[in-house]
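Worked example

This section walks through a single chain of length 667. The input is the sequence exactly as stored; nothing has been trimmed or padded.
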Amino acid sequence: MSHSRRLSLEPAIDSTARSFRDSLTLQRGDDFNKPDFRELDLGSPVSTLMPRVSSSSSAAATPTSSSGSSGSVPDKPSVKSHSGEITRSGMPATRNLKPGHRRSSSTGTPLIFSGSSFYSGASHSSGATSAASPSPTVLPAGNICPSGRILKTGMATRTSTRAETLCTGTGNYGHGNVVRSGGGIAGKTNHAAANGETPEELKRSGNDMYRRGRFTEALSLYDRAISLSPENASYRSNRAAALTALRRLGEAVKECLEAVRVDPSYSRAHQRLASLYLRLGEAENARRHLCYSGQCPDQADLQRLQTLEKHLRRCWEARKIGDWRTAIKETDAAIANGADSSPQLVACKAEALLRLNQLEESDFCLSCIPRLDHHHHQSQAKLFGMVAEAYVLCIQGQVDMALGRFENGVVKAERASMLDQTNPELLSVLNNVKTVVKARTRGNELFSSGRYSEASVAYGDGLEHDGSNSVLYCNRAACWYKLGLWEKSVEDCNQALKIHASYIKALLRRAASYGKLGRWEDAVRDYEFVRRELPGDSEVAESLERAKLALSQESKSLGGFFNNEVGAVTTLDKFKNSVSLPGVSVFHFKSSSNRKCEEISPYVNTLCLRYPLVHFFMVDVEESLALAKAESIRKVPTFKMYKNGDKVKEMICPSHQFLEDSIKQLL
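Given that input, the structure is written out below as tokens.
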């Protein structure tokens, strides 16, 4: 049997609604005079009342089953009169009551229920024998039954354990009705009935709100209907539809499961569950409810399920061989096919991006994972042989580790392992995560104590277990920098940036290493990138300006142009290139911590402007220890002068006048 693919709201007539409808149905002939002994629990202390209609209009007074089951508004809606009867529009509110429902004085004094017996005040005064020994088959008259039920024969001897109170009366029910006190669902039921609300009416109102797109109001109405009739599967199924429209899919699944529990053969709830599981990417659960009890599934839903299963299978195959681009393609196709709220499929794409060293994209992908509420549990759903929720946590933990969020990574890896304790892949990830964190902690401690060589070894141990951890590469690059191994520092920074392209620390460290190597063009490029990322950072701005100045001096000097700025030389290679320049070159070996160097440096700048045909260079011996050692610099300030590549003079702590005179002699 084929089911409709559209998940419309299906009203259903429960036993209560049918009883209520039947109690209002007009009867003819002898049947009209027979009392209704069916037990009706309408959630109200008031027995049903019958409208009086003429014989010509009796058929119109009967509610049709179609209006009761569809939830639509009848052609001529019922209205309530001041006494509580339901009448048709345009009909008088007069009554023609059944026996046992009379209130007029002509019928005599009504029987009053008191504990385990009935009595009538009027019969005692008249001496009627029937009042002295009331028959157990006599029903109470009027709206005086404490439970709101018409008692069956033989039920008159039951006693109530609840206190009875007199209702204050309303326009519908009148003053003095005997009701039971109480709260909870029973109290809500009485309140709803006192307002003329039945579960079916609430459901119909909810359906109307749903059709008008007012899903929150529809949900509230379905909630009230369920409070009156909690074991009605259609109410819960409709509530699931409203929750789905509000994108609360986890709650919708829970409500559909409850509807199936109430009515295991309820096809609409199974169909709605299958649709929800398809959106959640849980193909196995979707198939179980789409093909429940051997039923023939809707062909459109079956096609969607088969397509989802195909993409999931291809994702698994691509993941096993490391074909991450295909994994991304198949994941996107599954999401586009309808699995738009699947956390595990989004995690699958994030894993592929992580393996392709697109860390920012992977992290952003994980931030878009649908947040399912706590009502939804994925314990039965699996992906790649892992519990789906555990798989999601596993990928989140690995991305956290790659971004340096080590504590978060450990927590998520541990949670994943707890959710699926027998999965070997999750156990392996957890062990690697713990090892990497331990190595990183050890390396940080050694670096802080100045033991840079040992720290580099510790970071290397961590990289053996996680070769895609950008933080460990960057930390080891810091060790190489401190040890003066700038080429190795650049190499590790390159590895970190290959994994995490916008890693600011790695960019700054590489730029500083480039500066030590005299590769100012490369240094300027890195500083400019960081400057765009951190426009308000003054230190980055200053570093960029220094690198640009050094680059400018280098280009002018090496290009054979004379200039009026003192150039900086940091490496032995650059020193040799500068010495070989044509003309006169003056090298000032200095230390920023030396007072005499600081006193003479401004004068050197003055000479640079005064003699534009001379190349002036500055060498900071603290930053360029290798160069200072190669040139045998033992005291600062020291000046060395070259002409056409040949050394012609060397001076230690010269006076201003002697320095200038020496330059003049070389021109």
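What to look for: The CA atoms of residues 166 and 176 lie 5 Å apart.
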